[in-house]
Amino acid sequence: MPITITNVFESNIIVIAVLLAVFFLSLRKTEHSDLFPVYITQELKGLGILLVVFSHICYLLVTNSGFLYPLSIIAGVGVDLFLFMSGYGLTVGMLKKPLPVVAFYKRRLIKIFIPFWVALTFFFVADASWLHIYYPFSYIVESMLGWFPTARGYEDVNSPFWYITWTIMFYALFPLFFSAARPWLTAIILAIIATVLGMWNPFDLQDNWLHRLHTIAFSLGIVFAWLLIETKEKENRLVTYLKYFRNESTGMMRKVIIGFMLLFVGYTATHGTASDWPNLAAFLGHGYFVEQIAAVLMMFAFIIAFSLKRLDSKFLSIFGVYSYEIYLLHWPLMSRYDIFFGVMPAWMAVLSWLLAFVVLSWLLQKIITPLGMWIDSRI
User: Fold this and answer.
1) Which of 37, 48, 312, 337 reaches 20 to 30 Å from 200, CA-CA?
2) Count of C-beta atoms within a 10 Å radius of residue 342
3) Is the pLDDT of residue 348 over 90?
4) Which pLDDT band holds residue 310 (cuts at 50, 70, 90)?
């Protein structure tokens, strides 16, 4: 059941102050000159998972929706960051080293399922053994196959797994429609398929509103990779210019742009709903298009800001490295196996859970690595 938080304002101040302190203390001077290196993608994934976790705490775990404000109000941006990075990473990999469809599934799709199966099995067993919660056999089978048509916070085994169903769809379709000569066409096709599924819901996804808010981010990642891809045979003038601007422009100019991007995020986060932009919602025909556009714009603002900065955050990078495992674990642990909120002040419970998520995700990776190698050797 949801937890009641009384000292909301004080808790918010402490959590934000501690996170800012850790963030700034973890900053180190950038050592890379690339435009969009792996380290930045890790930081963005770390930002994404924190936004998702804070939102789930605010809107599902506690009764007061002001808790963790404003950290909790843009979880959709975090989801879009994950989808964007997936589309970007898969496209870069396929452009550099194309894989046949079967090989792609073996290398990419199975890597999603292995940690997913381990985490899901643990929760099914733990719920039955410790909480005497038993799920129908059909539900267990569908869950193991990645089918989650609902996102019921206290009824599903793991309500955030609606995202797993959506991600598996993109991973399954990607190699079937991928064109190394025209990645932009792949992006258009997948965006159309996702939008059609989101709007008309032919598979009767009961919480379909979540899916329809995230139909284009994966495709935008594909386009981004296509625009930034560099080869030995052909110079990418766009990348050359952007690198020059990033590495040679004055510190003041970069700081102004970064500051503007962050201010844009703050404004759009609080004024980016259909009710705030009624004319745009009426023009597009559906309010959820406005929500998606707002989230995408904020996502790109973060991408621009992170690409221009000359400091790296170890704090965000760590959460990025373990972002997928944290996504798999965080909600059931907090909602059904909470060990912190009942005995600690709310701010301390939040910080304790963040630390626990990193430790548990590290352990999950340690389990998954040899298991993945064993499975890979037999497929």
Assistant:
1) 48
2) 8
3) yes
4) confident
